[in-house]
Design goal:
alpha+beta; OB fold (Dihydrolipoamide Acetyltransferase, E2P); 5-stranded mixed β-barrel; 3 helices; 7 strands; about 40% helix; elongated
């Protein structure tokens, strides 16, 4: 083989190896990315089926129920427009309370029940996860627009 052909073969081989490395990195990233959805997004079918994602909003007042085993918890996450029932088996964060912000990570199970494997609570009275705050604000804005439209129709 001529030197020129060897250089071309080396470049093509190097590009092939680089392409394989890039494909493996992208595959690892996409399988580990967890997206955030509000209860409204889940009801509208925007959440992935069979993949983990995060849901956030406020823990609905009066919805917290503890199981007989002491570690299974059922509660409802709301963005004030739609509610999403959540079940979690584990120890809740100390700051987890009804009426406070929460982000839960898990999968959507049967009967639209969100099965969480991790629950995150806000860390002080002024903080809400940005995604949850945005979802609640958008739900309030939609509700206000709907009330305005109903008022104008009357």
């Amino acid at each position: 083989m001529k030197a020129r052909h060897q250089r071309i073969a080396l470049m093509v081989g190097g590009l092939a190896v680089l392409g394989i490395i890039i494909a493996l990195v992208l595959n690892a990233l996409t399988s580990n990315i967890v997206f955030f959805f509000s209860p409204t997004d889940v009801v509208e079918g925007k959440a992935p089926q069979g993949r983990a994602f995060r849901i956030g909003g406020m823990v609905k007042e009066g919805s917290l129920q503890r199981g007989a085993d002491g570690i299974t918890v059922h509660f409802v996450v709301t963005d004030t427009e739609h509610d999403m029932p959540v079940t979690y088996k584990g120890i809740l964060p100390d700051l987890f309370r009804e009426g406070k912000g929460v982000v839960a990570q898990g999968k959507l199970g049967e009967d639209s029940l969100f099965v969480a494997n991790e629950v995150l609570a806000k860390h002080d009275e002024n903080y809400m996860p940005p995604e949850a705050a945005k979802a609640v604000d958008e739900a309030h804005a939609r509700a206000a627009r709907n009330r305005t439209a109903e008022t104008l129709q009357q």
